[in-house]
């Protein structure tokens, strides 16, 4: 699954109505992850994931939990905006991994 597909799955999950009403939606989660990237004090991974959801979400199974949390961790590490991913797709680029995204971001495609 490409990282763009992982992000699409994450968006569907975060924007679902069955999450706690105080859980962050996709756009708010991205802002939160950006804030964590520039925070002076590092926040432990489990702490920021738990805070993002406000209460533990009802995952279909452990595989879904691992996939959603791994995508969040990758997104935070890369600080990749949805606009950057759309920019890649408009250029016909479909990265298959977070490493591919890093290479493309370093290579000069800008967020739009």
Give an account of the 3D structure.
The protein has a domain of 77 residues. The protein starts with a helix and ends in a 6-residue tail after the last helix. The mean pLDDT is 83. By secondary structure, it is mainly alpha-helical. Helix 2 packs across helix 4. The longest helix has 17 residues. 62% of the residues lie in helices and 0% in strands.
What fraction, in percent, of the residue positions are helical? 55-70%
Enumerate the spans where pLDDT stays under 50 for 5 or more consecutive residues: none
Shape: globular
Strand portion, in percent? Answer: under 5%
What would the average pLDDT be, to the nearest integer?
A: 83
The assigned structural class equals mainly alpha
Largest sheet geometry: none
What is the N-to-C order of secondary-structure elements (H for helix, E for strand)? HHHHHH
What's the number of helices?
6
Distance between the termini: 23 Å
Number of strands: 0
Features:
globular, 112 residues, mainly alpha, 6 helices
In short:
The protein is mostly helical and 112 residues long.
What is the topology?
Layout: H1 3-14, H2 26-38, H3 45-53, H4 62-78, H5 82-90, H6 98-106
Helix pairs in contact: 1-4, 2-4
